Amino acid sequence: MLGVAALLYESVAKNRVSLRQALSIVSPKTLALLFLVAVAVGWFARFSSLTAHLLGHANVVTTIATSTVTSLVINNLPAASLFAAHAIAHPFALLLGLDLGPNCVVTGALSSLLWLRIARTHQVKPSLVTFSVVGTLVAVLAMFAAAPLL
After folding, report:
1. Segments forming the whole domain that contains residue 1
2. pTM of the predicted model, to two decimals?
């Protein structure tokens, strides 16, 4: 987020683009969302020792569930960096939860948020309810199928 702000400042300061153009390129809503994600990651990082202890001794199902819920709350990219600093008992289960879990809701993965924004830019209005229902069904079935293989 700081990098985006620095690029915007430099572009506006050197008169490459106007402030209005810069804000239309990177919407304030997107910047606010990124800021909230950063705050959430910081808040979760305060409790990372508890999470590391939990996942260091957890079984496969607990690891999948924890990584899925965390990715849904703070997005899968910050969740992956949060868990990367600690030893995990079942790293493949962690990857499974971080990869499949975000399919349950559109806010779970940055790719889904970008897809939604691009769709809305082209006046397409995808159904978030359909995305969530189908995504949850597919993610849960895939996790149940993959968990015994771990």
Report:
1. 1-46
2. 0.67
